[in-house]
Amino acid sequence: MGNYAITIARGFGSGGKEIGTKLAQRLGIPCYEHQILKLASEESGLNEALFGRVDEKLSGSHLSKMLQKIPFTSVVSPQDKRFESDINLFNIQAEIIRKLAATTSFIVLGKCADHVLKDCDNVVSFYVEAPRSACVKSIMNKMGVSEAQAHKLISKTDKYRADYYKYYTGGNYWTNPVNYDMTLNSDRIGRNECVDLVEHYVRTKFKL
């Protein structure tokens, strides 16, 4: 097998990032999250902060976004007035992810990557979630916040990720199991065991 890509969508506090990072170490490949923003900035010449502003979330009114025309699907030129639009920023990131999938092996967290790469044969996609109680405990420990603050952060983050996914996929929903090769409940089996399962799947799928 040549190069391959692994996409991981994750509920906030579910441990998806930890699972992706450990999996990358085992497979000897990079795990990208915010690094995609840096690559997109370097590719386009736009400030990385612009990409950070719309990282897995919709800026402005969600309703007004939904009332816009269907997003254009290709990157526009710097001369186009839409060059710094949210949609073009998304398309620049999507193009980076597709270029990576064509040339190298990697893991990418979020970024609608399962949708961006849905037509590629060398891609496997996973969704990681956990019960709210487990996510709250994880966020409290990791971020040093109260239980109430953890609940608020999870609700807010999962909502903007879901809205972002729905918008840029044309109405699909983020937690749809059909989007993924496998959906994992990290609380039931444990995060390290999730890494074991995904690694086995990837090695079997790509005959590594």
UniProtKB/TrEMBL annotation:
- InterPro entries found in the cross-reference section: P-loop_NTPase
In which domain of life is the source organism classified? Bacteria
Pfam families xrefs: Cytidylate_kin2
User: What's the protein called, per UniProt?
Assistant: Cytidylate kinase-like family protein
Organism annotation: Kineothrix sedimenti
What are the leading ranks of the lineage? Answer: Bacteria, Bacillati, Bacillota, Clostridia, Lachnospirales
